[in-house]
Amino acid sequence: MPENFFARHQPLLKQAVAAIQTRGYWSPFSEMPSPKAYGETANDEGKKAFDALLHKPFPLDQPGTTGKTGREESPFGFELGITYPKVNLDDLIPAVQRAEAAWRNAGPETWTGIALESLVRLNKKSFEMAYAVMHTTGQAFMMAFQAGGPHAQDRGLEAVAYAWSEISRVPKTARWEKPQDKNEPLRMEKHYRVVPRGIALVIGCCTFPTWNSYPGLFASLTTGNAVIVKPHPGAILSLAITVQVIRGVLAEAGLDPNIVTLVAHEKGDDVAQKLALRPEIKIIDFTGSSRNGEWLERNAHQAQVFTEKAGVNPIIIDSTNDLKGMVRNIAFSLSLYSGQMCTAPQNIYVPQSGIDTAEGHLSFDQVANAIGEGISKLLSDTGRAVEVLGAIQNEDILHRIEQARGLGEIVVDSKQLPHPQFEKARVYTPLLLKATAGDEAKFMRELFGPIAFVVATQNTAQSIEIAKRAALEHGAITMSVYSTDNKVLNKVRDAAAESGVSLSCNLTGGVFVNQSAAYSDFHASGANPAANSSLTDTAFVANRFRVAQSRAHV
Amino acid sequence: MPENFFARHQPLLKQAVAAIQTRGYWSPFSEMPSPKAYGETANDEGKKAFDALLHKPFPLDQPGTTGKTGREESPFGFELGITYPKVNLDDLIPAVQRAEAAWRNAGPETWTGIALESLVRLNKKSFEMAYAVMHTTGQAFMMAFQAGGPHAQDRGLEAVAYAWSEISRVPKTARWEKPQDKNEPLRMEKHYRVVPRGIALVIGCCTFPTWNSYPGLFASLTTGNAVIVKPHPGAILSLAITVQVIRGVLAEAGLDPNIVTLVAHEKGDDVAQKLALRPEIKIIDFTGSSRNGEWLERNAHQAQVFTEKAGVNPIIIDSTNDLKGMVRNIAFSLSLYSGQMCTAPQNIYVPQSGIDTAEGHLSFDQVANAIGEGISKLLSDTGRAVEVLGAIQNEDILHRIEQARGLGEIVVDSKQLPHPQFEKARVYTPLLLKATAGDEAKFMRELFGPIAFVVATQNTAQSIEIAKRAALEHGAITMSVYSTDNKVLNKVRDAAAESGVSLSCNLTGGVFVNQSAAYSDFHASGANPAANSSLTDTAFVANRFRVAQSRAHV
Known about the structure:
The structure is a homodimer. Chain A is of the alpha/beta class. Chain A folds into two domains: 2-9 and 58-171 and 188-310 and 536-553, 3-Layer(aba) Sandwich (Aldehyde Dehydrogenase, Chain A, domain 1); 314-505, 3-Layer(aba) Sandwich (Aldehyde Dehydrogenase, Chain A, domain 2). The first copy, chain A, is built from 21 helices and 24 strands. Chain A has a seven-stranded mixed sheet with strand order 17-20-21-14-12-22-23. In chain A, helix 6 (108-124) runs antiparallel to helix 9, helix 8 runs parallel beside helix 9 (150-169) and helix 9 (150-169) packs parallel to helix 10. At the A-B interface, strand 5, strand 6, helix 20, strand 23 and helix 21 of A face strand 5, strand 6, helix 20, strand 23 and helix 21 of B.
């Protein structure tokens, strides 16, 4: 039965493997929540499915259940009222181990087939997933659909393609024949077996629960590991649905559904730490704070640890021949999901003497004000603004905005906007501040949320120096540069490469520095403190399994 | 100039890349120290070159040299009297960093070309290397030639092939074109750059200084990292020659020779720990004790750490239809280089009720005695014996033999043999002891050197259980099984795979469990405490570099 999944999805797998090699645009999952792509009734059905989950225990039948947990609330202003199984690890983990022993022997084609079928089924649930992601993360509907659904599925499929490439590169057998001068050659037959590490743990975040979790989840699954998914207490639902879907595929294939399980928990308990240090856990994929990520890197010695943590993303403005395009693009990047993205820019470095543009020279203040006006203009229509901004995921971010107001001269202030549909939604526009290069203590740390600085530097050379050093010391995932001078662009390219940051040059159109496309863009490099790995490259998958060999004379 | 090396060695590289995929027998470096392969005068010249190095400062001109260090002595009974530059790390490391900055930009083809040319030149020095390895490790000449020369070069070339495969799989550019319904597509050009980690540290061991160091050294070099080589104080010379050769190739190519440097030191100082914790060190390859390896894994957080440590390798004897072949094979495996190999067997599990053979049933004692007699017979001719045994690398091993005598009933005792050429050589035959499964405290730890146990178990099932558990808890690199029963063989195959041990089945001829062939055998699995990585697989190379990308609209 599972072999059928593998056979059925051969074209999909082959295309994905080709895509990660050529790295052009490709996706099998439509990013448009349109009736054409998903059917006339898909949105209604997804909404109904989401509504039907509210104020009930989530249907997940797992061993070791001792009660209920879960207190998610929508950033759009209501309680979800969904509970999840509360788990006793000492009962759950032995059940996962039993499942893992059989999974281990199912072999690469079954592992890969189950992963592919799961992704295809998740794609069919993209509307339900969109509402689940929207009402836990605060993303507006369109982003919740795309990032929570098809783009997350793309990142999952990308990981499957990398994992399959690696496990299928190991030959199953080899004939070894060593010449012995005039004597008969020594002849051996060798067998190579892909051996999974064991049990993998995926620790989700509260802003992109599926997008950031799927790569680790599907990479571990495709390399034969059992997976325990531990969502952030604030964003459980989309991962609970994910676990439910995969368990359904496993059961249908006659496999133990406990190969994939959910450990939900509430804020403030120590379930994550306990789980992460269990000797049975051999792989950990983590997205979250630097503090927690570094703790895992330094303490979970029994596991391969893959982390994505915090960073400070820069924009370097040197010059432009499309001021309007630049301002529009930056304003959108700062506003999109209220800057609650690990790829959102925070510090915009501009020479204190200003910049050259096609419309003539602009002073530093003129550049700062242009960006401020760009934000105001983008968000002037409230109906449109809430679809860009979404809602603030948690109260901590509101406090951070409040405190940041004192960090510099305000270019545009953050203000609350009413949401036409959701009365109690936490919708806030970005706060843009001015700073000078000497104020590093203020701007040189991640202020996660809709907070950004326009930083006056001595010149572009200093902008580059600060951006590079900041990436190396504090981490950064993205860097953006605007310049009409190829020499400057090349210097920034070198600085970005040397500090392990993905660079976007002169974005003035419909691509934003926040966006990272599966199969083409490497998300994070693993070469600075923002992450110790990349989504997705070979290193992300190659150590999730080992190879055991046996040999005998023929 | 370096591009020429890359072009020149294309056929070699292509064959090596093909070999690691098909994993059959292949080697470009002749393992026979014969005039036919290496020229009529090669041995004489190699011997002369070695002799010319004795009792002198080794010619290595490095920055940060503050004096001399080195007190190597040959296990065959004389002092080498060679000194090496004593290095001030605070002066050396900045020089390496400067070299690394240029090396980083030289690019994949130059990195790979330099590595290939270095290996080819090292091959030409195989006789000089043989004497250098022999008179530091205690290996007899033939093994010193093979393991120290061509086999080490093979392991180095294997690492180059893996590294080149990975870095060349990253496309240099991609065109990304995303359809926009009725609008013009979004078009971007993306550039991907392979970014080395920085400076790599290779920590050598005293028994296989080149064989165990070349994979890490050449993997790091081929992925663009600078490499600092820190040999074991007891076996510096062969790595000093290696560094000298690579520095020569670098200089000839117009590159900074400080891309590869040597940090020699004497026993008992803390140079290794200091070096390993330097923030500039981003990769560490280590071969040595479990204590030091685990310390690195737990403390060198700034680096990717690859370790090969200690283990307890088992032989499981269930039954055989070739008793003589089995005994001969085991006796040789225990005697070769006096068991001073991480692949040498230590514990031989035999059912207490004995085993079935083609010659009828043998009791436990008969099996133990047969192996003991096999050892005595193999080593009965002293001239031949010393060429199998080599010499004991250090005094600690002699003490270990002394202490091990009390651990069980002696089947054959260890005795000193005179060496026909070297009066003061430390040549000792293996100590074989009896134990029972209940004596785990005695035999269940690595007793590095010529010490082995024949362990009486309840039955083969218990033998398998102990061997598997021991590998998982204490580590093991090899496992060997003798059985005429396919069911037993399959059970052992599963146990070996689940405990990450390379299995050899029914070796009765000219292949020994100690031997691991480059391009075909994975050496260590990284799946048990004997090592956290494998020589060589993709995971061994893929995290030695990162990919930095930049993108811009077309």
